[in-house]
Amino acid sequence: MTSAMVSQTLLWVVVILQGVTILALARQIGVLHDRVAPAGALINGAGPGVGEQSPRLEVHALAGNAITVGGKLAAGKALLMLFVSSTCPICKKLIPIAKNFARSERLDVLFVGDADAAEQRKLVREFELDEHCFVNGPEVGMTYRIDKLPYAVLLDDVGMIAAKGLVNSREHFESLIVAKETGYATIQSYLKSQSEAA
Which of 9, 17, 53, 88 is the most buried (most CB within 10 A)? Predict the structure, then answer.
């Protein structure tokens, strides 16, 4: 056997071993994919829960207009409340995502903060928000017992809390809609019910 034939034989052995290794890794990735569930918005246990009637609050937006939180909306509508702060970098990342998401899902959106009004107006200008849809005051956050930001609450058309949770990506916003449509408070509870049914 010549050295060229030996080299070629060794090369084929290496290629076959690589192929077997790649197949084994692909199988392992599939197993991990099944075991690691997607994560939705993280719910804290405080405040009014999913499926409960939202507290009814009369508040004022930065523009001065009165807003009723927890009231009835037009049939089929929903309200996404996003609790934000001008000092929260994740909030600043999420505001454009929330605007786009609300537009694509046909949601009304209400931004809520409790900082200095001048700071909030700066945030409104920076992200081209509507002052008529930005509430600045502690009463809403205290009522819903919001302790971390950014936090979202989704209310349905009769003022029920359809979903809520700590959010930091578009996928977390989408998990709120899934929770509303399926009736499961979290993706984890949905996956658990599916595994029990199987």
Answer: 88
Whether the ω angle into residue 150 lies within 30 degrees of 0, i.e. cis, is yes
In a domain, 47, yes or no: no
Cα separation of 139 and 60, whole Å?
11
- The neighbour count for residue 124, using CB atoms within 10 Å, is 21
Alpha-carbon span 72 to 81, nearest angstrom: 15
Do 131 and 161 sit in the same domain of this protein? yes
Q: What is the pLDDT of residues 148-158, one digit of tens each?
A: 899 999 999 99
Start-to-end Cα distance in the chain: 59
Q: Which residue range is the domain that position 150 belongs to?
A: 57-197
pLDDT digits (tens, 9 = 90+) for 141-182: 999 999 889 999 999 999 999 999 899 999 999 989 988 888
* Angstrom distance (rounded) from CA 49 to CA 44: 9
The DSSP 8-state label assigned to residue 119 in this structure reads: H
Which of helix, strand or coil describes residue 91?
Answer: helix
Amino acid 134 reads: F
Report the number of distinct structural domains present in the chain. 2
pLDDT of 85 higher than 60: yes
**Residue with the two structure tokens 């998990």:** 175
CA distances from 132 to 65, 144, 180 (A): 6, 21, 26
